[in-house]
């Protein structure tokens, strides 16, 4: 009788151990599934942040390239405006020079006309 009770107790103990082992395995499996689900959920956010960062980097490169191109164009425009301004100054200088020559020619013409009139009006000239 005592030995049958011991055997029965040992059988119950073995059954409980088996049940506990099964429940432990189920618990570990559920914990792994939960961990995997949480990691997957976090990875979606991280992946989205990574994609957004890549897009921002690409846009920043395009913006930088656009700024460089704009700077080059601005330098070209400034050079053209400077050349145009210089050409206008030269035209102004030429115009001033032409006026000066014209005034000198008028003075010479007036002087020659007066000299001619003076010599023509003098008695004793032909």
Characterise this structure.
The protein has 126 residues and is mostly helical. Helix content is 95%, strand content 0%. The protein is built from one helix and no strands. The longest helix is centred in the middle third of the chain and has 120 residues, at 2-121. One of its GO terms (biological process) is endosomal transport. This is Biogenesis of lysosome-related organelles complex 1 subunit 1. Belongs to the BLOC1S1 family.
Question: Any chance you could write out the topology, listing elements then pairs?
Answer:
Elements: H1 2-121
Tally the beta strands.
Answer: 0
Proportion of helical residues: over 70%
The coarse overall form would be: rod-shaped
Given helix and strand content, the structural type is mainly alpha
| Low confidence ranges | none
Oligomer: single chain
Q: What separation lies between the terminal Cα atoms?
A: 181 Å
Q: What's the helix-strand series?
A: H
Cα-based radius of gyration, to the nearest Å: 54 Å
What share of the residues does DSSP label as strand, in percent? under 5%
Q: Tell me the major beta sheet.
A: none
- Total helix count? 1
Average pLDDT taken over every residue: 90
């Amino acid at each position: 009788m005592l030995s049958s009770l011991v055997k029965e107790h040992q059988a119950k103990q073995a059954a409980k151990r088996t049940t506990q082992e099964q429940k432990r395995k189920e618990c570990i499996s559920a914990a792994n599934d939960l961990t995997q689900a949480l990691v997957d959920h976090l990875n979606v956010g991280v992946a989205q942040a990574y994609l957004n960062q890549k897009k921002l980097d690409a846009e920043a490169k395009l913006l930088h390239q656009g700024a460089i191109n704009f700077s080059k164009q601005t330098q070209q425009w400034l050079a053209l405006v400077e050349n145009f301004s210089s050409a206008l100054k030269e035209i102004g200088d030429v115009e001033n020079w032409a006026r000066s020559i014209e005034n000198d020619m008028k003075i010479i013409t007036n002087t020659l006309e007066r000299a001619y009139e003076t010599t023509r009006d003098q008695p004793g000239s032909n």
